[in-house]
Amino acid sequence: MALEPDPTPSPSPPVPDLGSLPRAEFGFPGPLRDRLVAAILDGSKTSTTGLVADYEHEGEPLPEAGRREVVVDSREFPVAVIEVTEVRVVPLAEVDLAHAVDEGEGDTSVAEWRAGHERFWHGAQMRAALDDPGFTVDDATPVVLERFRVVTVLPATGR
């Protein structure tokens, strides 16, 4: 005897209380953030890199494994909840290929990854965000390497 499929839809996973979670903003609003968010949602982006100087300037603590954050898109809409699974602080020169590839931006070498990140970090928006028009990075610049996993993809309401 064949079983009939259950016509009742499966319940959606509960949406966490987004107001209690810190925001995860990848890049600045615009095309770069849109690409990074899409890569998170399709699973190709599972790591990210930040500057210790940026955390210090904002007065924010460094992320810790187990922390959950709500990812926002360029229009500030919440799109997913991620959980940090690993955090390392290393000099820029010690970023490894696995981390660079897992950022999901298509880089196939650390040199390619670094060139793209230096363009971003040396850009006018980043320098303005740091209140330092001459900000630059070098091999010794401390960076925060984060790995994360998507916990929940949020409903596309309002998008």
What does this structure look like?
This protein has helices spanning 31-41, 52-58, 97-102, 110-121, 124-129, and strands spanning 23-24, 47-51, 68-72, 78-91, 142-153. The chain has 5 helices and 5 strands; from the N terminus they run E-H-E-H-E-E-H-H-H-E. Strands 1-3-4-5-2 form a 5-stranded mixed sheet.
Query: How many whole angstroms does the radius of gyration measure?
Result: 18 Å
Are there runs of 5+ residues with pLDDT below 50, and where?
8-12
Rounded mean pLDDT score: 89
Number of strands: 5
How helical, in percent, are the residues? 25-40%
Q: Summarize the helix and strand pattern as letters.
A: EHEHEEHHHE
Please give the alpha-carbon distance between the first and last residues.
Answer: 45 Å
Largest sheet report? 5 strands, mixed
For the largest sheet, list the strands in their spatial order.
1-3-4-5-2
Determine the structural class based on helices, strands and strand pairing.
Answer: alpha+beta
Helical segment tally?
5
Strand content: 15-25%
Identify the overall geometry.
globular
Q: Which keywords apply here?
A:
single chain; 159 residues; alpha+beta; 24% strand
Give the helix/strand layout.
Elements: E1 23-24, H1 31-41, E2 47-51, H2 52-58, E3 68-72, E4 78-91, H3 97-102, H4 110-121, H5 124-129, E5 142-153
Parallel strand pairs: 1-3
Antiparallel strand pairs: 2-5, 3-4, 4-5
